[in-house]
Amino acid sequence: MALTGTEADIINCVARLRLVTKDQIRRQVGFSLEYIGFLCRDLIRRGYLGFSEGHYFLAKDGIKTLLAEETPKIDRKLIKEVAEEVARQISGELKRTVRGIKIPVSVREIIKETGFETPPGERIKIKTDFDLPVEDESLALESNIDKIGTRVEKEKSDDMDKTVRLFKEMHKPGGNGLASDRTGGHGLPSVRQSHRQSHKKGRKR
Amino acid sequence: MTKTKDGKPEGNGLPSDRQSHKREIEGLKGKIQKGKGVDIGTMFVKCAYKEGDEIVFKSQRNAFFDVEHTDFTKKILDNSKVKYIIKEDNLYVVGDEALQFANMFNKDTRRPLSKGVISPTEKEALPMIELLIKSVVGEPAYKPEGNGLPSDRQSHKGEIVYFSVPGEPLDADFNVLYHIKMVEGFLKTLGYTPKPINEGHAIILSELAGEDFTGMGLSFGGGMVNVCLSFMSVPIFKFSVAKSGDWIDQQVAMAVDETASRVSAIKESSLDLSKEGDLSKIESALSIYYNHLIEYVIENIKQEFAKARRLPRIANPISIILSGGTSLPKGFSGRFKQILDRLKLPIPVGSVRMACQPLRSVAKGALIAASADESKK
Question: Given 3.30.1330.10, 1.10.10.10, 3.40.50.1820, 1.10.3720.10, which CATH number is that of A5-74?
Answer without folding.
Answer: 1.10.10.10
